[in-house]
Amino acid sequence: MPNADENPIGLPEPALEKLLEQARQAALHSYSPYSGFRVGAALQLTNGQIVTGTNVENASYGLTICAERSALARAISQFGPGISIESVAVANLNDAPSPPCGACRQVLAEFILPEAPVIFPAADGLRTMAFSELLPLSFDMKMK
User: Fold this and answer.
1) Which residues contact 6 (CB under 8 A, 6 or more apart)?
2) What is the pLDDT of residues 6-39, one digit of tens each?
3) Could you tell me if 51 and 75 are in contact, meaning their C-beta atoms sit under 8 angstroms apart?
């Protein structure tokens, strides 16, 4: 998967652009009265389905749920725990960098293909990276 930064016109491939647009639409439903930071995420599953989520803030900030985890919870609720994610898009309505946070990266790690592209706004524009680059050493509990 080429990096969006390597694309001479600066646009991701069409499938990721469509996923990014769905993430932007999800961000419109954000509940973010405290920070005003409106984020949406879209997950492309290996079964062909696209599932979206948005951030939901809480007055007790630690209880806030990010858009990526919101989308993942929705995907598992709809399709069960056997899902597999083949690509992720994150968008916000604040024109600010918003790569997935560490908690979201770790939670996604249990369901995402290692080379799945993740597209998100970075300080220098849109960036696309393989998930394994975003979280190269995820925590893994192997039951023996």
Assistant:
1) none
2) 433 344 688 999 999 999 999 999 999 999 999 9
3) yes
- Please indicate, yes or no, if residue 43 is contained in any of the structural domains: yes
Give the CATH number for residue 105: 3.40.140.10
Q: Do β-strands 117-122 and 39-45 pair in parallel, antiparallel, or remain unpaired?
A: unpaired
Domain presence at residue 65: yes
Q: Compute the distance between CA of residue 138 and CA of residue 121 in angstroms, rounded to an integer.
A: 22
The label of the residue with tokens 């990276």 reads: 129
**Entry pTM:** 0.88
Q: Which residues are catalytic?
A: 68
**Could you tell me the residue range of the domain that residue 89 belongs to?**
4-131
Write the CA distances from 66 to 41, 99, 100, 143, integer angstroms: 9, 11, 9, 28
Number of domains the chain contains: 1
